[in-house]
Description:
Blueprint (H helix, E strand, L loop, with lengths): L7 H8 L8 H23 L9 H35 L7 H42 L5 H26 L5 H31 L3
Amino acid sequence: MNTTELSCSEFITLLASDAPAPGGGGAAALVGAIGTALGTMVGSLTLGKPKFADVEVELRQLKERADVLQDHFIELVARDAEVFLPLSQAYGLPKATEEEAARKAEVMEACLTQCAAVPLEIMQASGEALELLERLEQIGTPIALSDIGCGALTLKAALCSADLNVRVNTRLLQDRARADALNAEAEALLVAYTAVADRIYQRVQARYI
């Protein structure tokens, strides 16, 4: 089942069930799409206004990039579910003999690596989206800046949630060098882009205090 074809209420109901997917990673990707869409909305509200004619070209470019990112986030919702299913099945593989145990370990390692890679990609997309929102905050219409602040907070949630989903998988990897590399990449993205999200939110919030 492609979870991205569900209605909002259907997705939430499935998320709340005991189904193996969607889970935290898929939720993070969906939240990322929502945060990006809030930025896209600000671009849409700004485009075509005479007051912003001098940044029209850049606004169109930002909106086009945001449209691509939204689609990418939706793809990641589906991919997160796709890679988790083999992992959930791998836990049930037999390990009664040395051969079975070795095979199970090999399959688990491959599945865990894939399951860590998708949330890492969600983090990368969240960072790129936050960069777009920061520029839209600077050149977008002031009447919708609160939506930029909401988008920044939403993308921060996606970023932090995806980070947890990287680490829940890397902690079980036998290849600790690979785990450390994935964790280091996640940590760098987390530090860099939570800072971006926080400064966007703080600047927007300051306008309403």
